[in-house]
Design goal:
By secondary structure, the chain is mainly beta. Helix content is 6%, strand content 43%. It contains three helices and 39 strands. Strands 9-12-15-18-21-24-27-25-22-19-16-13 form a twelve-stranded parallel beta barrel. Strands 3-5-7-10-14-17-20-23-26-28 form a ten-stranded parallel beta sheet, with no helix packed on it. It has a five-stranded antiparallel beta sheet with strand order 30-33-38-35-36, with no helix packed on it. A hairpin with a 5-residue loop joins strand 35 and strand 36. The protein is elongated.
């Protein structure tokens, strides 16, 4: 008869094997028929226990639209605990609105959360610096972080019209754990929070996709975050409503196919941000991009900028701080839908696309029309001594002079900016001065200047135009003729490049020439003459 071996028995191994063979095969499997109803405790095996769990639903633990926040907090925590011990999937089944009063802390290496357009509304008793915190406690390798950490969730701080909840909706990263990476957040809608998405240290290679954030500080990442920012991705997201802002001071970012409605993006640290195929529609928020740090880089790739035709814009679209001389703003194939109401010279110094004086590199442009007129930036002006800043007329030459006496010089007592302007005077005569800058066929030409006139007697007018020249200085075409007869105060001439400001075939240079003509004594002043090409 098979039995268990006695302690100290010499052949205990053979005795034990004989005992085990009664109910086990040699490979360790139970023999058929050895376990039956008589061996199982009553109700110890149920269909629920035998079923393979696909997910753990907070609704199964008491979460409901009718429950109070404390009940829902406990139910969500119970589902998270069960999923962490089980297959790692928390699934909200319903599209209901669930009140909560505690932050959800998600370790993505242990569980993921899926919603069914489930709305989590912060109760009046909500406490915490964020509504949902995402991090990973996993050490290298990082495969436990892979995949979508959150999807199908609506986070509601307050309802529209109320003061936003003074906290962040979503916090990504961790103060201690260093491998908060290779995770993604998809189809999350955020509204009613003072801050939408807040990145903290130790976050890198994180992807946010198909999300919507309304109002407040839509996205923030402070300067000098440690172990942060390698290839952060934001794809197909919408930032909109209630004048949202994005402030980035750290990291390397790629925003792809995103829409920014009335949003200001500010770079306040040594970060690199790229907007690829994005849509800028700032309405009243100008500048909509501010590169405010001397080591920040903003790149616009194939991005569209739309000017609201019903709103007068009195500031430049973009700005780069003057101390940023080597990085700044790089624009590649900017597409614009313009309006005659884009008039940044009303409050800025000039009618330009980019103000501030920092580095701007424009590489390609397309538009419905540039007939409304602007230059790109004074900081990359091709005109030498365009504001008489040299205190003389160097760089300029007399293009033509007709009739009686004329003079051309610098006036240190009349100017719009800096400390001098160009002064042209005539007496029953005309004078035109000019300067040519390099330009290739197919390039867009952007130009603007300021002028004013004093007609002491008779009649007179000012004259501004652009000539496209061949390599032999032959005139191929002339565009942007502008003749203003009564500019008694400084006036911005911003229509110089006409409605088709593209250099024709054979172009080697574009020349701006400015002048004055009068039947008797007439004086004109010119300042801030700018030409850019792209």
């Amino acid at each position: 008869m098979a039995r268990l071996p006695n302690p100290g028995e010499a052949d205990w191994g053979e005795v034990l094997n004989e005992y085990l063979r009664v109910s086990h095969e040699d490979d360790g499997r139970l023999k058929a028929g050895v376990t039956g109803a008589t061996q199982l405790a009553s109700k110890s095996v149920t269909a629920d226990k035998l079923a393979v769990r696909e997910y753990y639903a907070p609704e199964d633990y008491g979460c409901s639209a009718a429950a109070d926040a404390a009940t829902n907090d406990a139910a969500i925590a119970a589902a998270i605990a069960a999923a962490t011990a089980g297959n790692g999937v928390v699934q909200f089944r319903d599209r209901g609105t669930y009140a909560i009063s505690k932050p959800i802390i998600q370790d993505v290496s242990k569980f993921v959360v899926r919603g069914n357009k489930t709305r989590l509304a912060m109760s009046s008793r909500f406490g915490g610096s964020f509504a949902w915190g995402v991090f990973s406690s996993s050490s290298y390798p990082y495969e436990r972080n892979l995949g979508t950490a959150i999807s199908g969730i609506i986070l509601a701080g307050t309802v529209p019209g109320q003061t936003p909840l003074a906290t962040a909706a979503l916090q990504i990263g961790h103060e201690t754990y260093t491998n908060n990476c290779l995770l993604s957040i998809d189809t999350v809608y955020i509204s009613g929070f003072e801050t939408g998405i807040k990145y903290i240290q130790n976050a890198w290679r994180v992807k946010v996709a198909n999300c919507r954030v309304t109002g407040g500080r839509a996205l923030i990442a402070a300067p000098r975050l440690a172990n942060f920012g390698e290839n952060l991705l934001v794809e197909n997201c919408m930032i909109e409503s209630y004048d949202p802002t994005i402030t980035i001071g750290s990291g390397e970012w790629n925003f792809t196919n995103c829409s920014f409605n009335n949003t200001r993006i500010t770079l306040d640290g040594d970060c690199v941000v790229k907007l690829n195929g994005c849509h800028l529609e700032p309405h009243t928020i100008y500048p909509c991009i501010a590169v405010s740090h001397p080591e920040a880089t903003m790149v616009l790739n194939e991005t569209t900028w739309i000017v609201d035709p019903d709103v007068t814009i009195s500031k430049a679209a973009f700005t780069v701080v003057e101390s940023n001389k080597t990085k700044g703003l790089i624009i590649r194939n900017l597409d614009t839908i313009q309006s005659a109401n884009y008039m940044p010279h009303a409050k800025d110094t000039n009618c330009v696309l980019v103000s501030g004086g920092g580095r701007v590199d424009m590489q390609g442009y397309s538009a419905n029309t540039n007939g409304y007129g602007f230059a790109i930036a004074k900081s990359n002006n091709l005109v030498f001594n365009g504001s008489a800043e040299k205190g003389n007329t160097s760089g300029w030459s007399t293009y033509a002079s007709y009739g009686g006496p004329t003079t051309f010089g610098v006036d240190a007592s009349v100017y719009r900016t800096a400390n001098a302007s160009f002064k042209l005077s005539t007496k029953a005569s005309s004078i035109y001065i000019g300067q040519a800058v390099p330009c290739r066929p197919g390039q867009w030409v952007f130009a603007q200047c300021w002028n004013k006139i004093l007609i002491e007697s008779g009649t007179g007018g000012t004259f501004v135009s652009l000539d496209f020249l061949s390599a032999k200085n032959d005139v191929i075409a002339t565009i942007g003729y502008n003749n203003t007869t009564r500019t008694t105060d400084w006036t911005c001439q911003r229509h110089l490049s006409g409605t088709s400001p593209v250099a024709p075939p054979g172009t080697a240079y574009v020349r701006i020439y400015i002048g004055v003509t009068g039947t008797d004594t007439t004086v004109a002043w010119y300042d801030e003459v700018i030409i850019n090409v792209a």
